[in-house]
Design brief:
The protein is an alpha/beta fold. The protein is 24% helix and 24% strand. The protein is globular, with a radius of gyration of 26 Å. It has helices at residues 4-36, 84-87, 92-106, 126-140, 159-167, 243-256, 312-319, and strands spanning 53-54, 60-66, 110-114, 144-147, 201-206, 217-223, 229-232, 235-238, 257-260, 270-273, 276-279, 322-327, 336-339, 342-346, 363-373, 378-390, 397-405. GO terms for molecular function: hydrolase activity, acting on ester bonds; metal ion binding.
Length: 408
């Protein structure tokens, strides 16, 4: 006859055996199999916007320019240069809230982030900060693109790694650099593009659906990497756009030029180019001379540019298609001024963790491009307008301005 003590010992032995087997299976499942299996927890597909980008049925295309977010870690990154009454509860989250309000109010078709997206020295994880900084754009499902400033790479990623990561984020159409070969460079042949920096690329905006230009680019957006810091003859200065970038830009522009025939609906004969807008972070030296012109907006700090003049203005002028350049970098400047028929416009600082001015609201720029209305359909680009929004109670709209009119 089996004693009750023997039964208890046998039951406890079996229980321990089952427990150890369960623990082994759990460890195999959680620590080994999940690393080997392709489950939803490990593989995530990038969400992409509908491409190509194009004008709306009402003949408009609206761009929101966000400059100098200087995002840190979120709620722990305190605001700079705000009123004493605002400081206690002010952080990176104010920047996020501002961008969300801009998106909800303006309903842009595209968002352009023009550098210093994160404040590298304020974060120990660049990837985490990038995700937080661009979250409003990703949540909105609006196509967006970004370039780098001079502070983005100061954390845990190089500039190349930053652009690679940004290009993989939801609804981003950013690129690390031009793809495969420069197809408009007939002299060099179809060879791989050798170009300085990371974040040089162009984006086509096609005509409206239902028109003969629906599958044709009628507006080009050029993005350029203006670098970060450099040393020239022993003197510390800012980066600049290199000749290899300008060479690529000239070839791209030349490839998109179109010849207008005398039978065009507007009756304007001759040769014209598809208009283009350019985005980069650090201004060129010539922007300083705008102090002596009739600019529109605020010119409140010196233009912090490179000591090297690499010929960007001459290149843009000779191309003939760039109508406006949109800059960041100098947070207290938000003006637009014209040089050689090209408008140079600052976005104004949008980020609360970056420097500002007490009592001067953070801001962002809106760019509206309008098509010409033909007899039966929308035609080519006719006008380019801009204004700014302030982060105040009313999200005030200021400094409305016509930058370009094709018929002028």
């Amino acid at each position: 006859m089996v004693s009750s003590s023997s039964i208890r010992e046998t039951w406890m032995t079996h229980s321990l055996y089952i427990f150890f087997i369960s623990m082994i299976l759990y460890i195999i499942q959680t620590l080994i199999f999940q690393k080997l299996m392709f489950g939803q927890e490990l593989i995530r597909i990038k969400r992409t916007p509908d491409l190509p980008l194009r004008f709306n049925y009402d003949g408009t295309f609206k761009i929101l320019q966000v400059a100098d977010m200087h995002y840190g870690t979120g709620v722990l990154s305190r605001c700079r240069d705000v009123l004493a009454s605002e400081f206690m509860f002010c952080s990176d989250l104010n920047t996020t809230q501002f961008i969300r309000k801009l998106i909800a109010t303006e309903k842009p078709d595209f968002i352009a982030f023009t550098g210093d997206n994160i404040f590298g020295s304020s974060t120990a994880d660049a990837a985490e900060s990038l995700i937080k900084a661009f979250r409003p754009a990703m949540e909105s499902k609006i196509p967006w693109a970004a370039i780098l400033g001079n502070h983005d790479q100061e954390s845990t990623m190089t500039r190349e790694e930053l652009m690679y990561f940004i290009s993989l984020m939801d609804y981003s159409v950013s690129q690390i650099n031009p793809s495969t070969y420069d197809r408009f460079d007939n002299d060099r042949g179809h060879v791989l593009a050798d170009i300085d920096g990371f974040g040089n690329y162009n984006i086509h905006i096609n005509g409206a659906f239902g028109t003969h230009l629906a599958n044709t680019s009628v507006l080009n957006l050029y993005f350029l990497d203006s670098g970060d810091r450099a040393t020239v003859e022993g003197i510390r200065t800012y980066g600049w756009i290199k000749e290899s970038q300008l060479h690529w830009l000239r070839n791209i522009s030349e490839g998109f030029q179109v010849t207008k025939q005398a039978q065009n609906l507007d009756g304007l004969p001759g040769v014209a180019t598809i208009p283009a807008l350019t985005f980069f972070h650090i201004p060129i030296p010539e922007v300083r001379q705008l102090w002596y012109t009739k600019f529109k907006g605020q010119f409140q700090e010196g233009v912090a540019c490179s000591t090297v003049n690499s010929g960007v203005l001459q290149t843009l002028t000779s191309m003939g298609d760039v109508k406006a350049v949109f800059l960041g970098h100098d947070h207290l400047n938000d003006f637009c001024g014209e040089i050689n028929g090209i408008w140079f416009c600052y976005g104004g600082g949008s980020g609360y963790h970056g420097y500002g001015k007490v009592g001067w609201q953070r801001r962002a720029r809106i760019i509206l491009v309008e098509l010409e209305k033909g007899k039966h359909e929308w035609m080519e680009v006719e006008k380019i307008k801009t204004w700014k929004r302030l982060d105040d109670e009313n999200l005030s709209k200021i400094d409305m301005q016509l930058l370009w009119d094709r018929r002028s």
